[in-house]
Amino acid sequence: MNNGMLNTAARAARIAGKIILRNFEQADLDVAEKQKNDLVTNIDKECEKAIFDFIGSKYPGHRFLGEEGGAQETRQAPETEAAKTRKPGLGKASGDHLWIVDPIDGTTNFVKGIPHVAVSIALQINGVTELGVVYDPIRDEMFQALRGQGAVLNNRRLRVTDAMGLDGTILATAFPHRKRELMDSYTAILMRVFKECADIRRAGTASLDLAYVAAGRLDGYFELGLKPWDMAAGELMVREAGGIVADFKGGNDYMKSGSVLCGNPKIAKRLVALAREDSANL
After folding, report:
1. Per residue in 103-125, pLDDT tens?
2. 233 and 142 share one domain
């Protein structure tokens, strides 16, 4: 893996970021409810198309999994005019390459004018996440990670905090608003965690929560009911910044289960201990 694909992902994220900025706090958004308490706008769809088209022009034949395309749908990039005339060797077309995209993570924040949203793009090759980009267009912060090569924020190397336990830590979480039947189990975990940490934040953008753990802004994070596009880029970022990412049982099935926690090794271990009791119900 070289930096070419990472640069492509970053450029695609900036293209989507410009669309977000152009439409932020606009009153004429076309807002729909995909399912109860899960919003989508015309701008989400515009951003997703822009990302697919740009990456597809560089790497025709690669597949895409995007939030607005449906949970099971993958799409082959279109054979654009730019792709037809690209230089040989720019990108090998392969069904083993899967781009996982959340065009606007934090859509509800975007709709409400809350300035905390992100574009999340990850690439899996043969099922392994090789790169991730989380871009906050409001703050112009570009978080990037390459497997085995670390994570950076605007070219500054990232590292998780060195907290020795939950005492004094600031964590992030989110309520399971899409799966409210899990609220009892979540609340039990939340109460156990809250008794040990200093405080908990709930900002509404999972990819930025993960990126903030990688950057040391947060000591840890836990959430359930996520989808692959919510965490594919951010979880790689945490791992490349020296952190541990796990499901609530302490395993690595979080991309399928949707239940994820992370932090430095000591923080992650303690969060698993506090979450495991209720993990069978999740």
Report:
1. 999 999 999 999 999 999 999 99
2. no
